Amino acid sequence: MTVIDTPRQEAPAVPFSEALAVWLKVGFLSFGGAAGQIAMLHTIIVEEKKWLDEKRFLHALNYCTLLPGPEAQQLATYVGWLLHGVRGGLTAGLLFVLPGALVVLGLSMLYVTARGLPVVDGIFFGIKAAVLVIVVQAVIKMAKRVGDATALKLVMAGSFLAILLLQAPYPLVVLAAALTGALIAPPPPAGAPPPAPAAGRWSRLGRDLVVWGAVWWAPVAIAALLLGGGHILTQLGLFFSKLAVLTFGGAYALLVWLAQAAVEQKGWLSAAEMADGLGLAETKPGPTILVTQFVGFLAAYRLPAPFDAMTAGIIGAALTTWVTFAPSFLFIFAGAPFVEDLRHNRRLAGALTGITAAVVGVILYLALWFGLHVFFGQVGSLSFGPVSVPTVTLAALDWKAAVLAAIAFLLAFRLKVGLITLIGVMAALGVAVKLTLG
Fold it and tell me: Which residues cross the membrane (predicted)?
């Protein structure tokens, strides 16, 4: 089978039924976060099926790393689009999300109905320790992607301190890092000129913006018309739509904004519940960013009128998932011709590098935030003018949580156990602790 060699060539003739079977397989087996999911896509698409060659796969991946949102899901959408147009992109993108979304919905329903049982409480108690390790691993992986440039290290440190000490809003941190990265961007290397822009891209852009913008916003508009702008469903649609266009750096960076807004400002859920949600999102196939669905479920479940609590929770979960992933289809279908051109813009490349550096600092703050709440429960603050330092009471230390966290770090960094094994072991240990020590 002939593979694609350049961005402008036609896709190979792959039967849609064959592609559908592959996307179903990917949807049910895409564990391991974005890195693992991209590796699996590479194995299937490049090595096994040979639908794309190495160069073309990396070219598609470069498109998706420029975009906000879940890059692995966007990569699947983009490959599906190359093979079968919009039909293929929708199929690949939706199936990448749907299995995991159904699992998270089921676990969310279990979470609100079965808490209080020692076994269920123990599972989530143990998972919190695993989550802390997972976030620390994310910091290390992201830091390696940034490199050793002093300016970028300063961006990392500045982002961490801005959120920790000044409670700077996450979007502002990202914007400042992007501007810094653009200003310090090195000149491009000498080489071939960028490819010519695709023909008809402006008319296609206008059409796609209208169509996919309507697809994205229709559920939010319906909620606003039927329930009002202040209803929790409308608020969820607006809030997570904003997150969808600012989620550079993946789910862990997004969690900082969630912690600031959903936990500290809106009170939709607690810090401990946020850790539980991330644990749930790590145990199923699909993007980790599905943690947003858990937040949407709990928020609507607790403010259900005029529905019953479970119905409201299910609608909230569905709406949140919709507005989290619908923008990705707009970005891929409408933006691909323009992203191709922008890849050769050194200022944009520098801005993205700056954002990556900032995300490392943001995720480091997330690790600290999770750790303080897991170990101490309540976290206070001590203010010095605009600077605020988090404080804890040492007597409130949960030694059982600290011991479980130590075991989780040992398993992950010394024994090198995999993600699913780590979560399973820690969940089992959490159950043992709750059943024996309370």
Answer: 90-111, 123-140, 160-185, 209-227, 239-259, 312-336, 348-372, 419-437
